[in-house]
Give the backbone structure.
Amino acid sequence: MGGGTNGNGGGAASAMDVYLPRTQGDVDDDGKERRTGTVWTATAHIITAVIGSGVLSLAWAMAQLGWVAGPITLLLFAAITFYTCGLLSDCYRVGDPATGKRNYTYTDAVKSYLGGWHVWFCGFCQYVNMFGTGIGYTITASISAAAINKSNCYHWRGHGTDCSQNTSAYIIGFGVLQALFCQLPNFHQLWWLSIIAAVMSFSYAAIAVGLSLAQTIMDPLGRTTLTGTVVGVDVDATQKVWLTFQALGNVAFAYSYAIILIEIQDTLRSSPPENATMRRATAAGISTTTGFYLLCGCLGYSAFGNAAPGNILTGFGFYEPYWLVDVANACIVVHLVGGFQVFCQPLFAAVEGGVARRCPGLLGGGAGRASGVNVFRLVWRTAFVAVITLLAILMPFFNSILGILGSIAFWPLTVFFPVEMYIRQRQLPRFSAKWVALQSLSLVCFLVTVAACAASIQGVLDSLKTYVPFKTRS
């Protein structure tokens, strides 16, 4: 991980690491192993991070928002994310964008520009969300794996058959797989996994779009309206409010990649300047994913109407062709294997970097140092995955969990910190026109975040009323 590790052992880069003699051209300006990332690898990381489980809930979100507010909401979140990620990419280096001091992590950038309580708040938001995203991805992957068996069951035994699956076994299987992949030392070694995951995300999104289009043309399964679900018909007034806010949280989750932007940027080669490359990658990644989001959300809504399932590929609006539904869900599982790593590797780096600084004796030195780091990494990362796996079994609530994660990440990490760092970087006068505009944007996004978080928590509480631990069936 570029933020707190090097390629040699997974711990924080120490003074010895930086000043070790190396052949000229083998290292970057900070003494670390030369970075080789390009706009294409960065775009792959972005698509891997952005087109995740969030895309599967967009038809449901559109059903809550309707034809007017739904597409507008998607486009607004895309525009806000693109703009604020541009501000954030300029914070990778302090001072000159080509030669200034590097910030290896999001928290490093906040420390360089803001300092004080902002650093603690940023670390809390970032790492809690990375942890939560691991839970969300584990839940989603297990539901998709279970859907493969359900699809085959429905095909061979009929659509009226009880083909529900206990998801706990699938969650455990996904956890075992992640425990193995988590032993990859750092983020730089994930480029191949991100490319595979990006291809998978394109594949299942394209299948969802194709199936939705076919269903829309042949026989739409429900009616659509300009304002989404109808009070008194589909939901009552209170449910309409809560579900609308929860839908906003789901859309926010679909765009929450700023959380790892600095870490992705730290994989890029230094020429051209990293911020320029990152802006190009962000433009390519956000525009591509927004196109898919609009297609998935709008076509999914047109196919299923106000009764659109929470997860378009596992809610079984689609039964046939069953083999294509199987392929789509298999692609989701493969993609989320990579997505889990993209989100969790920065957290691994932060913990291991802290251990390297505070307990150097634990890691040893020389040959023992390498084995020490590996032993520590093996134990702590495996324990981390085990905790996530247990919590995923205990909280298998797809849409509500996505809404909570989206609301936690969106305002502080996508809007608040980039805006505050930009104001400090450019030294904007207080109450100037641009200062007021940026603070107004931050305030509006904060209110959306609070509403979405409250609605999603309410959704979890409602689900808990009928929930039996370890016996959840999908």
Q: What stands out?
A: The domain at 27-464 is CATH 1.20.1740.10 (Amino acid/polyamine transporter I). The chain has 15 helices and two strands.
